[in-house]
Amino acid sequence: MKIEVLDYKVSKKRGKKECDLIIPFSITSNSGQIEYSAAEIDMKMLSYFVGRIPVVATSFLYLSAIIYAIDRSVSRDKHSIDGWSRELDVVIKIPSHEAFDVQKEHIAKLLSYLTGDYWTVSFHEASSVRLTKYKDCDYFDSIAQVNLFSGGLDSLIGAIDFMSQYPEKKLFLASHYDSKMSGTRSDQERLLQHFASKYKGQYVVFPKRNSVRIVSHISAETTCRSRSLMFIAIALQIAEYNKSKIIIPENGSVSLNYPLSPSRRSSCSTRTTHPVIIHLVKKLFENLGLSAEIENPYEFMTKGEMVRDCKDRPYLLSILSDSNSCGKRTRRQFFYDNKHATHCGHCMPCMYREASLIGFDDSTSYGNELDSLFRRKRLQLTDDFFAMLNFLKTDLTEEDIKRELRIAKVNELPDFERYVDLVFKTRSELKALIVTKGSNELKRYIGLL
To answer: What's this model's pTM, rounded to 2 decimal places?
Structure first.
């Protein structure tokens, strides 16, 4: 499939000082059919950094928007070569294209690992566009750290950890939501309302929650694996401006996403914050001459360890129900035990969350109880649940885990043994969930009785 980025455009329909940067592209299928889509970025606030940070940092924002829009525009059902992976040959117009073209093989490797597709990329000079220019202001000054902020439990913990420890410092919360996909925006806004009371003056966000908006015209695909690049790219603008660090607050179990079964390897495995991805992004930043550092300080911790080690755990527990970890919250027809729940209770993010809060007052509402899922073993909605159970009942050795991690190239990273230990800790945490909330029949199924 051939994809070509066309000339950039600026739309100022919503007023003089507000503008959307529109980056259109053509999509030519293998049959020769041509469709068009675009990335749209609300540049009202982001254009403040244009000219104040290196051009390659601005270009990375445009690149991430283009990749995200392509990811959202090309249906896997229609265009995959194996039921999942797509072959995407993309010609990208971008400022400072020479610097990116030198890195095209590295970028293709990063994108392929991230989305599970086969990417080929090349770079050409973008058409010049005129964006709103802003006078210097102090709104974005003196930011000590930039955190990715999704509205989930982990990003909530990351924000609390920083603001409770460093009340004299300023934190930027970098967020992104897709206007075609409900939920994420309201999660972020509910938590920000809590922060406005507890941490007033300690954090900065874009004044409008839709200041960063990427909208695919076709919106044919909802898997959105490239979305994490958008968060990173937004964070990079502020981090490069302040020479501050970018923090990705994600528990190691979810980041590593150890496959629960052989069928969940490689392209079938979500890798949005995988340590290999962070390593590849970090290397790309270095190669592009950017100063911003990026790290996940929780990469060897389970979600339960993040909860237990939170720097203000009582506050976390008091507001955790306003965070959301669920990957399938819109499928309420499958909420058999509680139709009004905020979490499905049957996806892996829900099970990691529920396991992490064992021993604490978990105010989260779940649409399905463990035993209900166990009784519905023939339904597709229990695929994640039974994959987890079979993962827990399998007697994995250290060498088994190392072999699986080598397939995902984790052995090429430092601290390989710590990832092995993380898998064992993850299994223990999930088993504790079954011990605490499962019936004897369920415990017997995985060999606990």
So the answer is: 0.93
